[in-house]
Design brief:
Helices cover 75% and strands 0% of the residues. 30% of the residues are buried. α2 runs antiparallel to α3 and α3 runs antiparallel to α4. By secondary structure, the chain is mainly α.
Length: 71
């Protein structure tokens, strides 16, 4: 509901991503964390969450690539 009411609020999509990841719904988690990053592209927090979400989905190479952006 929060994301629907506030479509430009990146933490709403981060929250959705976290919950989908917890439920094992990795495709939806990735979709939402990518949206959060698009809304807040300079956030190290969102970048880290993106890497964690990809890793949880078993997409290690992509996760490592994303997390390398922190360096």
């Amino acid at each position: 509901k929060l994301a629907a009411e506030h479509p430009r609020y990146p933490l709403a999509f981060y929250g959705l991503a976290w919950n989908y990841r917890y439920l094992g719904r990795h495709a939806e988690a990735i979709e939402n964390i990518k949206r959060a990053r698009k809304l807040n592209p300079d956030s190290a927090f969102m970048l880290t969450a993106d890497g964690q979400t990809l890793a949880a989905a078993g997409r290690r190479t992509e996760a490592e690539s994303v997390l390398a952006e922190l360096a």
